[in-house]
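User: I'll paste a sequence; please echo it back and then give the predicted structure.

Assistant: Echoing your sequence first, then the prediction.
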Amino acid sequence: MSPTPEGIDLVSLRAHYPILSRRNYLNSCSLGALSDRAEDYLDDFRDRWHTMGASAWYEHWWGRLALLRERVERIHGAPAGTMALLPSTSAALSSVIDAVPSVSASLGGRSAVAPGGHRNRVVMSELDFPTLAYQWATRPELDVVVLESPDGIGMDPQQYADAVDERTLFLATSHVFYATGFVQDMTALADIARKAGAWSLIDGYHGPGQVPVDVGAAGVDFYTSGPLKWLCGGPGLSYLYVRDELIPELRPRATSWFATQNQFAFDLQGFEYHDDARRFEMGTPALPTVHTALGGQELLEETGLDRVHARCASLRERLVEACRAGGLEMRIAPDPAARSSIVMVAMDDPKGVVAELDRRGIVVDHRPGFVRVSPHVYNTEDEVDQVVEALAGIRDAARS
């Protein structure tokens, strides 16, 4: 196998992911493949636990946390000190939501007031992942506006512009929609929120690692993501970006000893927020995932993020064209520029189809009405062609 047109030596890269020698793995949108590099980091964590015990914290693991924050900032285009490590996206969102309404001062021309005041509206879309929507369900004082998609695939930025006004506290939506793969324009979303005096809160869990992300350039206020999917780091961790100008004014009410300035003073009366995004952290991060996340991201960065993004786009378009040639219906953005490496293929029994594909050694996932295929940088054109051929065959067999 020769290097791909994107300049990636697939033979060398694929050798790092053991599952690829066993299965046709096209489900990175659900869980990124585990690499031997991530396992090496995890083995190092285990070995130091065996040999050093708690002293590994001071001599090694503390540095790992700092290293991961730095690498996560780099891959998100975030300034130093603007990313925090949290246990889940739900925790990250809750931390933000509880911090913003407690601010009474005007920030950068925007007034953030407690829910129940003149800003108590949240604007989101019907295509967002439920985790985002559920944050508002326990806060009946908030007025939640769920915008309908005109085509069931994506959103027009003008819809947000028409809905976000002086009553809006958050424009809260996704970077990449999980069930359509549609990529939203974060810069446009941030601009809409800013002009109305609202906060932009972006759920980006399906973005980093497969599409370009630059939170600093986009100007968003908050962005959540994590290593579970395209960053190939596994479950148990989430990343939170907070725009640097906002950090000094925000005081999360759900807090921990990781959020305090003098963490090892153990002073019950001496709580002071960190002066960077660590003030949002909620206790000891999951150290095993910290290590697998370092290994997973390291491989992607060594491959080159531009090459990773180009490879994902190339495989996606091959998948789309093969589905069209095979007469398979899809739910994807009409404009390739708004597509991600998430391709939804319509099938009558998606759960049954996924099970049948699994029996054939092909791993994908399903969502209502669709089989979700999500190739990553380490997949091949042959693997993409194989899943399309299998899907078309299953469809034809069901019709006969």
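The two ends are 38 Å apart (CA to CA). The longest strand covers residues 168-174.
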